[in-house]
């Protein structure tokens, strides 16, 4: 087995496909025999799993490690059970099987909670948040992200919370078509994100939350609320000394004032945008044309 594993690793590295196929077939024959004999040889199963990994066939490696998991659970070997579950989680992720990866890390999470292992509880929640995001499962992602936020709040480690709140809001937003009641949850979480970020002087995170909040208001034709959030965004971009962000916000506000038929306020916003554009030497013509069009319109 070890010789096959070594040769398999070399064959894969040197892109010898026929050799890899031959070794894979040999490994499958060995596995078939082991299953027939109901082998309880942990080391042999582990060698088989490693050999499958060496020829980069994680799907087959999973079968070997599932056999190991069954055996170590019968032996009540908790440490090896944890190590095996971690290996299985990594294998599922390596071929993008997010549903199986989620099941594995949920198991690991429950074991960590039962043992009072706070460090691994946090690590598994972070991994699950990634898995549910990649697997496009917003409801599960929201559940995990809320648990993470609760832990950070409990530990008074608020620096991570704004980014989590933004992700929670994005997941709620993705569910609005399915259930319009989630819209308010999206608003609430974006608002919480920028309030916490502002208090922590995380002005970049505050800006991100406000920008997403403004886009959401505009998508719902709530222009007054979008303008109110834009004024807070102006303060945030000023504190972050983000001139480009300020310029974009004035442009956005100008467009919203035009929607409200408030040409005077739109003109003032575009003029502010032009001032910053001149400092940046960027988009000067764009703002000048906006101002010229509005000025002619109101002659």
TrEMBL record:
<dbReference type="InterPro" id="IPR011990">
    <property type="entry name" value="TPR-like_helical_dom_sf"/>
</dbReference>
<comment type="similarity">
    <text>Belongs to the Rap family.</text>
</comment>
<keyword id="KW-0677">Repeat</keyword>
<dbReference type="InterPro" id="IPR051476">
    <property type="entry name" value="Bac_ResReg_Asp_Phosphatase"/>
</dbReference>
<keyword id="KW-0963">Cytoplasm</keyword>
<dbReference type="InterPro" id="IPR019734">
    <property type="entry name" value="TPR_rpt"/>
</dbReference>
<keyword id="KW-0802">TPR repeat</keyword>
<protein>
    <submittedName>
        <fullName>TPR repeat-containing protein</fullName>
    </submittedName>
</protein>
<dbReference type="Pfam" id="PF13181">
    <property type="entry name" value="TPR_8"/>
</dbReference>
<dbReference type="GO" id="GO:0005737">
    <property type="term" value="C:cytoplasm"/>
</dbReference>
<feature type="repeat" description="TPR">
    <location>
        <begin position="247"/>
        <end position="280"/>
    </location>
</feature>
């Amino acid at each position: 087995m070890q010789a096959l594993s070594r040769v398999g690793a070399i064959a894969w590295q040197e892109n010898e496909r026929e050799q890899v196929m031959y070794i894979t077939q040999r490994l499958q024959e060995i596995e078939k025999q082991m299953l027939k004999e109901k082998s309880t040889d942990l080391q042999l199963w582990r060698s088989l799993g490693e050999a499958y990994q060496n020829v980069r066939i994680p799907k087959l490696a999973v079968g070997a490690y599932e056999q190991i998991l069954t055996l170590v659970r019968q032996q009540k070997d908790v440490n090896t059970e944890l190590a095996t579950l971690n290996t299985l989680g990594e294998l599922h992720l390596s071929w993008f099987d997010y549903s199986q990866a989620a099941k594995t890390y949920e198991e690991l999470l429950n074991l960590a909670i039962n043992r009072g292992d706070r460090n691994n509880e946090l690590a598994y929640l972070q991994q699950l948040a990634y898995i549910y995001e990649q697997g496009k499962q917003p409801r599960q992602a929201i559940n995990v992200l809320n648990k993470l936020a609760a832990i950070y709040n409990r530990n008074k480690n608020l620096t991570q919370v704004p980014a989590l709140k933004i992700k929670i809001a994005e997941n709620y937003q993705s569910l609005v078509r399915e259930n319009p009641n989630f819209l308010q949850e999206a608003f609430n979480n974006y608002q919480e994100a920028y309030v916490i970020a502002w208090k922590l002087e995380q002005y970049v995170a505050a800006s991100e939350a406000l920008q997403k909040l403004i886009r959401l208001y505009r998508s719902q034709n709530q222009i007054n609320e979008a303008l109110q959030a834009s004024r807070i965004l102006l303060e945030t971009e000023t504190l972050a000394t983000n001139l480009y962000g300020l310029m974009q916000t004035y442009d956005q506000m100008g467009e919203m004032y035009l929607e409200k038929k408030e040409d005077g306020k739109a003109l003032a916003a575009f003029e502010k945008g032009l001032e910053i554009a001149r400092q940046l030497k960027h988009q000067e013509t764009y703002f000048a044309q906006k101002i010229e069009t509005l000025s002619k319109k109101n002659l």
